[in-house]
Amino acid sequence: MPSVRSGSRRGRRAMTDINVVPYIDVMLVLLVIFMVTAPMAPPGVIDLPTVGRAAQMPVKPLEVLLNADGTVQIRDRERGDSRPQTVARTDLARIARERQTEHPNQPVVISADRKSQYESVLTVMDDLQKQGVARVGLLVKQGS
Fold first, then answer.
1. Would you tell me how many other CB atoms lie within 10 Å of the CB of residue 75?
2. Is there a contact between 72 and 124 (Cβ–Cβ < 8 Å)?
3. Cα separation values, 43 from 30, 46, 51, Å
4. Least trusted range by pLDDT, from 37-41, 67-71, 125-129, 139-143
5. From residue 76, how far is each of 29, 41, 64, 108, 137 by CA, in Å?
6. For residue 60, what are the contacts with CB-CB under 8 A and spacing of at least 6?
7. What angle do CA 122, 123, 127 make, to 5 degrees?
8. DSSP state of 61
9. Do residues 108 and 122 touch, judged by C-beta distance below 8 A?
10. pTM of this structure
11. Closest CA to 135 of 75, 61, 80
C-alpha cells in the first residue's frame, strides 16, 4: 500500500503553467470586433491651406525685399510705390511701424532673394517682431 499513496501524491501536484487559451479567445473576439467596426468609422480628413487659394488682402502689404548681397529695400504698394527704396536695416522697424500707424491693417511681408542666407531672413523677421511690428509674414512666389 505505501506505493499507492506515493502515486496519488504525484497526481495532486499543483500546475505551474499559465493557461493562455482564454487570453487567445478574448484577443480573437476583440480582433473581429475591430475588423467589423473599423470600416464604419468616418475617415479624418484635414483640409490644408495652399498658396494658390490664399485670400486677397484688402490692404496691400508693405514689402521688405532682402537681396543676395544683404541690402534691404522697402516697397509700399498702398502708397503707389512701384520701385523699392533702399533703407538701412536699423531703420527698417521704425519705418514699418510708421506705415502701420497710417494703415493699421497693413501687413508686412518679407521677400528674400533665392541666394540670400536663411539667417538674414530670420534676423529681419525677429527685429520686426521685437520692435512691435504686427502681422509679419513671408512672401512666396506662386507656382504656375
1. 18
2. yes
3. 21, 10, 25
4. 139-143
5. 67, 51, 9, 10, 15
6. 76, 77, 78, 106
7. 115
8. P
9. no
10. 0.55
11. 61
Contact between 92 and 120 (Cβ < 8 Å): no
List beta partners, residue 110: 64, 138
| Cα distance between residue 119 and residue 139, in whole Å | 16
- Element housing 42 (H / E): none
The tens digit of pLDDT for each residue in 27-67 reads 999 999 999 998 888 877 666 656 665 556 577 888 898 88
In a 10 Å sphere around its CB, with 0-12 CB exposed, 13-18 middle and 19+ buried, how is residue 29 labelled? exposed
pLDDT at 10 > cutoff 90: no
Name the residue among 109, 124, 139, 116 with its Cα closest to residue 70. 116
Pairwise pLDDT comparison (59 vs 111), residue with the higher score: 111
Output the pLDDT for position 49. 56
- C-alpha radius of gyration, the chain, whole number: 35
Grid cell for residue 57: 488682402
Going across the sheet that includes 85-87, the strands are 85-87, 72-76, 62-66, 108-112, 136-138
